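ARCHIVE CARD
Drawer: 12
Card no.: 0347
Subject: one protein chain, sequence and derived structure
Cross-reference: see card 0346
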Amino acid sequence: MPHTKWKQDFFTKVEPIAMVDPLAVVLGAIGEGEPIYYSYADCVKVAGHACASVSSAFQMTKTALKALYGNETPVRGGVSVRFGGDRTSGANGPIGQVIQFLTGAAIETGFHGLAGKYGRSDKFVYDEELGEEYPNGISAKFTRDDNGKSVVVVANPGAIPLTPEERAGAGFMPDVIKGNAGSEEREKFFSFWQGKNKKILLEEHGAFTVIHVA
């Protein structure tokens, strides 16, 4: 079976998010109670690249679902999300796309449901007021639809420390993007860029804060 040959081996070392999906069950895609696994590599496919925003979106969602469900398997389509910020600002759009993909919560164009059940549309909202309430990072409020339990997760990937070598690698970004960098410069940039992703996904650094709202 053909498979993607990722340049970064840590992609496959990130623990996936297990979800049950009632819609997938009712339409015969998977058996009752069987989990569907969503990997970080899946999110890279959705976004088309791996960056700190994509990594933060994955970790924010994983962190929120753990806080909301504990030892239960989270229900895809069973969580509503308010994202702190305007949809067109910075990387808010791509971050939102990853969170939507993982949770099933969708903007107004999402699935409208079957016979009044399994709807996904309007469960993901960009909320500028929430962003103003938590201005020091990337914020999102996750709410279980069945019991109303909510948590806000705030990510601050900029607080993750970098080594001098990693900071030096960041300086090659303009030449890499323009196609002017040599192979050694490109590898140094990759070491910085993907090294930050690896830290976000696999290391403890206090960059994610969980605030229990209800």
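Annotation on reverse: Residues 17 and 54 are 15 Å apart (CA to CA). The mean pLDDT is 96.
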